[in-house]
Amino acid sequence: MPTALITGITGQDGQYLAEFLHTMDYKVYGMVRGQRNPKAEIIQRELPFVEMINGDLQDLSSLIATLEYCQPDEVYNLGAISFVALSFKQAELTADITGLGVLRLLEAIRLVGGPNNPIRFYQASSSEMFGKVRETPQNELTPFYPRSPYGTAKVFGHHTTVNYRESYDLYACSGILFNHESPRRGIEFVTRKITNAVARIKLGLQTEIVLGDLTPRRDWGFAGDYVKAMWAMLQQDEADDFVVATGETHSVSEFCQLAFEAAGIEDWERYIRQDERFMRPSEVDLLIGDPQKAKDKLGWTTEYGFRQLVQAMVENDLAIETANIGR
Ligand code: GDR
Predict the structure, then answer these.
(1) What is the dihedral of CA 136, 142, 146, 150, to 10 degrees?
(2) Which domain does 28 fall in, by range?
(3) Which of 57, 75, 97, 199 is the most buried (most CB within 10 A)?
């Protein structure tokens, strides 16, 4: 039975990936940090087949112990401070977990793995590394220009992954994933914040959505599609890096418009209020990825289009909020 360890198991991607690996008969371990982590308790109920193990990307010895216990064939490093806005407020913590955490995990893999015990490694790199984009669309060769402490930490993690692959002959891949969303997305991210608010406005529970900049454009895909690319990267003959994206871009305001339409509300602009609080010190204005390499080499395809994704997220939030009223 193949064995996988996922850091960041409590996040959206960790859950989709664990489910996907489970359908392929993997033994799945999920690394969680902290004492009585409340998110871990929820995930354990939802994904009972995952064996939770305590470990922390800030603590090398805990990573070594985790790998020794799980003896994984594959490690997926999805753990990070992943909210870009927070990274401006906790820059050092972000550098430590999102950046140095990658180095610690690779060191642990080097120590516990080795020629007789090879461990394949996936690093969750991000389109935020492209930041103030040098070319459009962005591909694997586009230079990086990060615009946040999160982006700079991800650039460090990315280069560290490539360097460990080249220095120690590790099977280490970096997936440069563009934004990917789902009904499981955390409420702090703009897509879910919007779909949740739209549902509440529709049901008369809320009167407006308070947002930051509505002009940034993102390449938004469905998280369930993206975790399949992570797995495919670890099944190749040689480790490599891949951009995973849809090749379409939409603005935050387009997302708002579609989300309101999905709930049957046309005059959406009257429900939007903008507030400085949600503006970032430096913004990433335009992201659009070129996924050709992933399509050609991994045979990766998407099942969900943008419109379908927005619709599914709004419907999910309408169902949740309706059920909450009944409680
Ligand atoms: P992002 O996602 O920063 O692209 O990173 P997010 O959904 O937070 O922001 C997208 C864009 O929307 C603008 N925006 C707002 N964002 C939030 N969260 N809340 C608001 O009220 C708001 N108003 C406008 C933002 O300024 C931004 O331009 C995500 C994360 O999942 C990263 O971890 C991941 O690496 C990248 O996607 C790919």
Answers:
(1) 110
(2) 3-180+221-244
(3) 75
